[in-house]
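Quick one - inputs below.
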Amino acid sequence: GENVEQHPSTLSVQEGDSAVIKCTYSDSASNYFPWYKQELGKRPQLIIDIRSNVGEKKDQRIAVTLNKTAKHFSLHITETQPEDSAVYFCAASINTGNQFYFGTGTSLTVIP
Amino acid sequence: GAVVSQHPSRVICKSGTSVKIECRSLDFQATTMFWYRQFPKKSLMLMATSNEGSKATYEQGVEKDKFLINHASLTLSTLTVTSAHPEDSSFYICSATPPTSGREDTQYFGPGTRLTVL
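Output:
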């Protein structure tokens, strides 16, 4: 089955700096890669996603890049703000409607 | 759109009792829902895939007789933790995918249910 690894497990940045979280996956058939943000005790919220036919996607301060050859994808947050502090999960999925394989999560702390 | 609710949000029960958790898709029909378990500061562990009108598909290591799943309608799936024990205490989250929204591969999560078994 699919194996998704995520690094780092914790990340602290100064407000205004950039944060990068990286994930790798094992199954070349995976074609959908969402990123979720989860605040303590809350539900995971989709923040951005990318499909395998695209190499990069950007939404304001958030961007995701995908390298299909190397089987890794990354989340980039620029101009970080304290409210970006949360746990971020990457995931990979093989087909529409199929299960997600989640990474182990990254706890991001943005220091004011 | 794509709102998923869960009930109850929090439940405390005695060891040996059964607890039912409901997951509803409020503004769309979901033929498939997913149930996850999350331990503190840990990732989401998929427990089972709930299919409307058929049996759920359980992940390896998840006891199907312990965690009963019923997906009786296109908007409701239930997870029943039978004969709960303290080790079943956890955060249970469901998710669903809106089938015809153009976001068929995205899962939207419910708010979760915090189960504490005394």
